[in-house]
Amino acid sequence: MNELLARVQRLEDIEQIRRLKYDYARACDLGADPDALIALFAPEGEVTWRSNVFGEHRGHDAIHRWFGGVAGMMPWAAHFMDNAVIDVAAGGRAATGRWDLLEFATMVPLDGAGDPEAVVMSGWYSDEFRKIGDRWYFSVIDIEMRQMSALDAGWVRQPNRGGDPGAVSAGRALR
Q1: What is the C-alpha to C-alpha distance for residues 33 and 66, in angstroms, rounded to an integer?
Q2: Fewer Cβ within 10 Å of end Cβ, the chain: N or C?
């Protein structure tokens, strides 16, 4: 019976982590409220949000500042998370997860002048989670952007909006 309970708990943990990721995507899509987003990160210990495009932000204050500025550069977004693979570690207090991202967004022009652009992005999330009490939290969110293109240009003609053609795949930040 203990084995069955452990298997059920593992499935419940996986579903809670999946829901946490969806809560993250929804909070990003609803204006990237820094208070709502930071509440999804473990309240204790080191936490990190990193991207090969948008930089690395370590600690609660740095992540909060980052999300405080996201709406100014990306006033609208729709994150679609798919192909989840979630692994709960032995002991049930830590986990990792992977998701594929397809995202549509409105972004301000890179030079800050002119009308906003429709942008399509794709990438791979590799996240780490920590269970505190009965609740799962992010300890690391890591998004490797694979492509970021103005919608009217497309990913073939403009695989990396604002950067050199190899910047995203090589992991260099686009600014």
Answers
A1: 10
A2: N
